[in-house]
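Inverse folding, one chain.
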C-alpha cells in the first residue's frame, strides 16, 4: 500500500507542486493518529466579563514531525475530504473525556469540555455510541461534555439535526451552535433544536464598536438567544473594549486571546490558580494567560 503511494511521488513534470504537497500531507495524516501526533489544546471560556473559567473548548492540533505544530485550517479540509475525520473525530471525543477525567482527579471537578464536530462526523451513525463509550470509559458526567456543531452543519438537514441532537442531549450532553450568524438559520428550526448555547461568530466581534452594524447584529443574536432560553458565547474577544461591550450587550460567556489562548493540556491547571471565583481583582486584570 505504502509503496503504491510512494510510486506517485516520483518526479512528474506535469505535477503541480501544491497538489503534491497536499498528497504528501494526506499520506502523513493517515499515519498521524497511529503515530500519536494529534494533540488537543484547550481554550478557556470565561463567565463575562473576566471569569471564573466555566469550561474549555478542545481544539485539535497536529504535531507534524517536519512541519511543526499545525492548526486545523491546514489539515481539517483534507481530513474531511478523505473521511479520516471520522476516526480523528472519535479520537478527539475520547481524548477530551480522558483529559477531563485527569483534571477532575486533580480536584477540578466542575470543569467541563466542549468538542467540535464536523458535518461528516455529526451525520455518522456511530456518533451516539462513541459519545456514550467515551463518557463511561472515563466516568465523565454527561452534562460536563458539550458538542459544538456549526450553524451551517445544523441547518444542512434541520430535521435530521434535531433527531441527532435530541439523541445526544437525552444522554445529558449539551449542544452548542457554533459560528452563529454566518449560516442561514430557519428560526422555526432553531427553536426546535435542543441546544443550550449559541456562539457568536468571530466575524461579528472582530470590528465590534458601538453604533455599527455588527453591534446591531450582536444585540439581535443576544435577544434571540434570550427568547429561546439559550446562553450566548462570544468568541474571538481580543480587546478590553470588545470584552466590555459584549458584556454590556448581554453575552454570558467570553472566549478569546484577551482572556486565554488555547493551551497544551499540561499548561491548563495553572489557570485554576488564577481564575477561581474568589480570586483577587488585580490578578484578574493584570495577568493575561498565555
Ligand atoms: P471554532 O470552533 O470556531 O474555534 C475557534 C477558533 O478561533 C480556534 O481556531 C481558536 O484558536 C480561534 N480563536 C480563539 N480566540 C481567538 C481570538 O481571540 N482571535 C483569533 N483570531 N482567533 C481566536 P483553531 O483552533 O485554529 O480552530 C479552527 C476551527 O477548526 C474551529 O473553529 C473548528 O471549527 C475547527 N476545529 C478545531 N478543532 C476541531 C476538532 O477537534 N474537530 C473538528 N471537527 N473541528 C475542529
Ligand atoms: Mg468551536
Ligand atoms: Mg466558532
Ligand atoms: Mg470557526
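Residues assigned per position:
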Amino acid at each position: 500500500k505504502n509503496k503504491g503511494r510512494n510510486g506517485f511521488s516520483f518526479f512528474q513534470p506535469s505535477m503541480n507542486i501544491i497538489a503534491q504537497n497536499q498528497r504528501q500531507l494526506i499520506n502523513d495524516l493517515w499515519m498521524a493518529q497511529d503515530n500519536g501526533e494529534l494533540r488537543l489544546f484547550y481554550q478557556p471560556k470565561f463567565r463575562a466579563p473576566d471569569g471564573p473559567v466555566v469550561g474549555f473548548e478542545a481544539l485539535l492540533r497536529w504535531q507534524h514531525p517536519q512541519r511543526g505544530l499545525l492548526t486545523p485550517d491546514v489539515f481539517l479540509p483534507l481530513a474531511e475530504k478523505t473521511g479520516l475525520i471520522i476516526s480523528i473525530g472519535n479520537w478527539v471525543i475520547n481524548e477530551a473525556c480522558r483529559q477531563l477525567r485527569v483534571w477532575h482527579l486533580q480536584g477540578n471537578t466542575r470543569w467541563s469540555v466542549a468538542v467540535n464536530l464536523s458535518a461528516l462526523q455529526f451525520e455518522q451513525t456511530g456518533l451516539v455510541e462513541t459519545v456514550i463509550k467515551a463518557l463511561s470509559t472515563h466516568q465523565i458526567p454527561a452534562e460536563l461534555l458539550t458538542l459544538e456543531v456549526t450553524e451551517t452543519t445544523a441547518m444542512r438537514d434541520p430535521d435530521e439535526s434535531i433527531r441527532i441532537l435530541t439523541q445526544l442531549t437525552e444522554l445529558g450532553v449539551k449542544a452548542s451552535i457554533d459560528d452563529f450568524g454566518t449560516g442561514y438559520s430557519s428560526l422555526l428550526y432553531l427553536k426546535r433544536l435542543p441546544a443550550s448555547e449559541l456562539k457568536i461568530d468571530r466575524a461579528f466581534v472582530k470590528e465590534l464598536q458601538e453604533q455599527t452594524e455588527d453591534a446591531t447584529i450582536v444585540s439581535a443574536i443576544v435577544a434571540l438567544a434570550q427568547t429561546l432560553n439559550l446562553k450566548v458565547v462570544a468568541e474571538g474577544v481580543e480587546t478590553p473594549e470588545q470584552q466590555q461591550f459584549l458584556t454590556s450587550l448581554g453575552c454570558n460567556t467570553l472566549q478569546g486571546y484577551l482572556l486565554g489562548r488555547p493551551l497544551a493540556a499540561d499548561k491548563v491547571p495553572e489557570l485554576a490558580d488564577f481564575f477561581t471565583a474568589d480570586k483577587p481583582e488585580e490578578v484578574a486584570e493584570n495577568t493575561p494567560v498565555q
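The first strand starts at residue 38 and ends at 47. Residues 178-179, 199, 235 surround magnesium ion (ligand 3) (CB under 6 Å).
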